[in-house]
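User:
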Amino acid sequence: MRLDGFGLLVDDMPTMIRFYRDVLGFEILESEDTKNVYLVKDGTLFLLYGRKDFEKMTSRTYEYVKGLNGHFEIAMYVDTFEEVDAQYERILANGGQSVLEPTTEPWGQRTCYIADPEGNLVEIGSFNRPFAR
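Assistant: Predicted structure:
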């Protein structure tokens, strides 16, 4: 088994599509008006599922946290500390909500957190060098 991607259950599909596509740079793979939207970033599949559609499909109801939530984070990497700061400012100017201003941590990473329009955490970080596995 291999990881294929990950998804979010969303309430406001058009707003979330615009944020992930237009602000964070995910590529949308089909029409915006579908019930489940497939986006991709750097080879990773990212899905947005409409909450009501998912509940109908699974014949269940779910509880959802409102506002900021700390269930998980989406981590994004940039090559330099300056890019962390620049991306943070750009994302705030385009609708992101500040959670943590850019900070250089004791372990050497510069990081910041923003929240998407539905309160999910997005981290932008760097070790001031290109990403390497």
